[in-house]
Amino acid sequence: MDLFKEINEKLESLLESGEYKTWLDVPDLQKYLNLSESKIRHLVSENAIPFRRIGPRGKILFNRKMIDLFVLYNGEKISFTKSDRKILEILN
Predict the structure, then answer these.
(1) In angstroms, rounded to a whole number, what is the distance separating the alpha carbons of residues 46 and 22?
(2) H helices of the chain, where?
């Protein structure tokens, strides 16, 4: 089996099982990036990582695609145009 097929099958399996989350909370992100909770909260407090606060208690959530881009660009701040944001919204 070639690598592409293997990756595709794994992704399909994750999507079907519900294990692939679009939005990650702090514990999910800890596992995903192998970072401590304090490091993640520090990055949030410095606005050094893309995140959203949701609800009246301000729960912190991270969009997996934005985190993947963040990691891909070595933690550099990424600025998006309006059309980029629309594309990301459609992908979610």
Answers:
(1) 23
(2) 3-17, 26-33, 37-45, 64-72, 82-91
* Domain 21-91 grouped into CATH 2.40.10: no
Burial 11-46 (b: 16+ CB within 10 A, else e): eeeeeeeeeeeeebebeebeeebebeeeebeebbee
- Residue 77: partners with Cβ closer than 8 Å, 6 or more residues away: 48
- Please say if the pLDDT value at position 3 is more than 90: no
Domain-wise residue ranges, the chain: 21-91
Residue 48's φ and ψ, nearest 5 degrees, are -95, 0
The per-residue pLDDT for range 9-55, each reduced to its tens digit, is 776 776 676 667 889 999 999 988 889 999 999 999 988 889 999 88
Q: Is the model more confident about 52 or about 91?
A: 52
Phi-psi region of 74 (alpha: psi -120 to 50; beta: other; left: phi over 0): left
